[in-house]
UniProtKB/TrEMBL annotation:
It comes from the Bacteria. Pfam families: 4HBT (PF03061). Belongs to the acyl coenzyme A hydrolase family. InterPro entries: Cytosol_ACT (IPR040170), HOTDOG_ACOT (IPR033120), HotDog_dom_sf (IPR029069), Thioestr_dom (IPR006683). GO terms for cellular component: cytosol. It comes from Streptomyces jumonjinensis. Residues 18-131 form the HotDog ACOT-type domain. One of its GO terms (molecular function) is long-chain fatty acyl-CoA hydrolase activity. GO terms for biological process: acyl-CoA metabolic process. Residues 143-154 have a biased composition (Basic and acidic residues). Keywords: Hydrolase. The keyword Hydrolase applies. This is Acyl-CoA thioesterase.
Amino acid sequence: MTDQANRPYPAIEGKLTSASRTTLSHIMTGNDTNLLGTVHGGVIMKLVDDAAGAVAGRHSGGPAVTASMDEMVFLEPVRVGDLVHVKAQVNWTGRSSMEVGVRVLAERWNESTPAQQVGSAYLVFAAVDGDGKPRPVPPVIPETERDRRRNQEAQIRRTHRLARRRAIRELREQRAAEGIED
Ligand SMILES: CC(C)(COP(=O)(O)OP(=O)(O)OC[C@H]1O[C@@H](n2cnc3c(N)ncnc32)[C@H](O)[C@@H]1OP(=O)(O)O)[C@@H](O)C(=O)NCCC(=O)NCCS
């Protein structure tokens, strides 16, 4: 089911999911608000990218760049005074890319109520060398049933991303061949 099997690079020893799993926590202040007075979605997206980038760097053992961010979902508004926790882990690895899954939780900074999930996202990072070229990553080793489910779901998203890119490229090539200009 995985296309890791087709990796052209020499085999690299795998790394456990827990080895790079990371939580980034931040209290939201008045500087983070939008015109409605709640926290700006872009502030949350920056935290998501930061946490996922740390995970990708830890897993791959070096620099990694954001290739794509998809399915960023905001479930509830985040408010000033919320303590936001951004939890990220590697769900899947290819040859040089990694899918990082992120969950965003929020709780009042000064109350002992349980944290509530307010968002989630999936990002693809590519590990790069000093010239910015893709470099191989260690295969991720899922440890729990939840990790295995996330790995299987990530493979479904990977298949859909590739199919969507291919279909759009083919459509553009077809329109160009027919001499259609946008
Ligand atoms: C991401 C990047 C390194 C890919 O380089 P490339 O020359 O296109 O290399 P490849 O086509 O071999 O892609 C490398 C891997 O990334 C994956 N990838 C590339 N673009 C992708 C995208 N848009 N979505 C998902 N995966 C992507 C490929 O599938 C491949 O995965 P694999 O090696 O596991 O099979 C390059 O496009 C880049 O540097 N982009 C800018 C990244 C950046 O600066 N991010 C911060 C934005 S400010």
